Structure formats: C-alpha cells, structure tokens
Task: structure prediction
Amino acid sequence: MKLLHPFCPHVTEELWEKIGNKNFISLEKWPVADESKIDEKFEKLEKDIEKLADDISNIVKMFESKSKKVSKAFIYLLPNEKKIYSENIDIIKKKINLEINIFAVNDKSKYDPQNKASKAKPGKPGIYLE
Result:
C-alpha cells in the first residue's frame, strides 16, 4: 500500500485503517530494500541470457540483409553452462523466434558443420545459424 499511496492516497489511507493500523500511512516510513536478498549470480545469468538473445538477433539481421533466411539456431556451451541455458531456453525463443538447439562443446552427437563449438568460451557461447 505504501507504493500505491502516492497515486491514490485517499483509498490507501482507508485501506490502511481497515487492516487495523492506527497511524496514517503517509506518516509511515518508506520500505527499505534488503540488499542481502539480491542474488548476484542470478542477475549475471539474466544478463548473459539477454546478451545471447541479442547476439543471435544481430547475426540474424546480418543474414537477412544478405537475403538469407534463418530458421534454426545452434548454441554451443561449456558443459557446466548447458543446464543453466537449457532451463532458460524459453526466454531466448520468445526473443528471437527461431528453433533453438543447445549442445555442450564436448557432446559427441552435436550438429556442428562449421566447428563453431570450438569458439565457445566461459560466458560466451558459440553460435551457428541455418
């Protein structure tokens, strides 16, 4: 209700009283964020996934400027990163609207006609488009 108060003060004051508070909501202290609850690893992962989607989008634009159609993306990751990216594949799919296949660089059954898997580095996947 503290967040709503600047936008609809009359309503929030009434609701504040209805839930049993005696003071005015306008006199209450503003909530303070608990910095210890911020997960730095999660934020880095989110940025890495967004960066991968942006990288693929940029490569697709380059292909399309040369009148080449792209329908599939193959992503090559280090083995310890594969699970993390696989769990978040839906975010990437929504952003780039392509069929996506994710492989670990050491996967013997991976599809890698141009040896893009060898270009994968920690936090920087290899990308091949068809």
